[in-house]
Amino acid sequence: MTDKKSNHDTAIHHRHFAAKGSVVVEQGEKGNLAYLVQSGKLRVYAENAGKIMELATLEAGQIFGDMALMSDEPRSATVEALTDCNLIVISREVMAEKLKKSDPTIRAILPMLMKRVKESNNTVMGKKESLDDLIGVTNTVYENVHAGLEGKQKTTLERAVYPRLEAFTKSVEDFKKLYGL
Fold first, then answer.
1. pTM for the whole thing?
2. C-alpha dist (Å) from residue 132 to 48, 77, 108, 125, 142
3. Alpha-carbon span 179 to 170, nearest angstrom
4. What are the tens digits of pLDDT across the range 141-154?
5. N or C: which end of the chain has fewer CB within 10 A?
6. Is 69 left (phi over 0), alpha (psi -120 to 50) or beta?
C-alpha cells in the first residue's frame, strides 16, 4: 500500500507498508527506489553460489535500496520484512532534485562514494571461497576503514590494528604453506 503526500517541499512523496514476511526488494530485479525505514525490522540477504548470505538487519532510521538511486544495475540483495514495517519511499527523481540543490562538492563526491560501496559489496559477495580471497577482503575492509578516518583515529588504527592485520596475513600464508594450499 503506497500513499502520496502532496507537499512538494519534503522528500516524503510516498510511504509504503510492508507486512511481516513480505519481500520489499528482490535480488536481481531492476530498481529505481530506495526506502527509509520509519518503523519495523527487515532482513537483508543475498544468494551467491547457491548459498544464502545474511548481510544485515535494518531498523528505524536506516536506508536500503540506495544504489538504485544512482545506478541501473540489478538489486544486489533481497530485503524481507521481519515485522510489519512503515517505509518512506525515495525515488530517483526526488534524489536528483535534492542533488541539484546541494553543494557542488557533495554532488562530486556522491558518485565516488557509491562506486566504493558497490566495489566493497562485490568484494564481500564474490570473494569468500579461498584463503587468498580472505586476505584480499580483509585488506580491502581495512583500507576502506582507514580511508574514512582522520587524524588521531587514523594513527591509532595504524598502530593498533595494522600490525595485527600483518600478523593475520602471515598466519594465513603459513597455514597455506603448511597444508600445500
1. 0.60
2. 18, 25, 34, 15, 15
3. 14
4. 888 888 888 999 99
5. N
6. alpha
